[in-house]
Amino acid sequence: GGMIAGVSEIDVSDWIQNSDCRLPQETKTMFWRCVQSFKPEDRLALLHSTAGMSALPPGGFACLPGNRFTVVSGYGNLDEALPMAATCFNQLSLPPYSTESSMRTKLLIAVRYGAKGFVFM
Which residues are annotated as catalytic? Predict the structure, then answer.
């Protein structure tokens, strides 16, 4: 169940439906597969580091304040760069990764170590 303060269990299909994912198809598929494979706390950490919220509003992603959750293509050395977040725009900038496991590892480093992992724009 959800907490009174907001929703703690993130429904990935709601997330996908209410996101603006400006990535090449293959990268987009990899990204959502990564998110689906995350533990609930890692999904929340991703939301927190991208949108600055520790829980979803009761109406889910459609009710995210400000911009829709947005994922854009980032830059950086293949498989070395970490994702970047712009919390004021609810935007995640995802560098090109050659494999899903590489993307997953970098996303988890970024969300678990917060500002130390993420490069904030």
Answer: 88
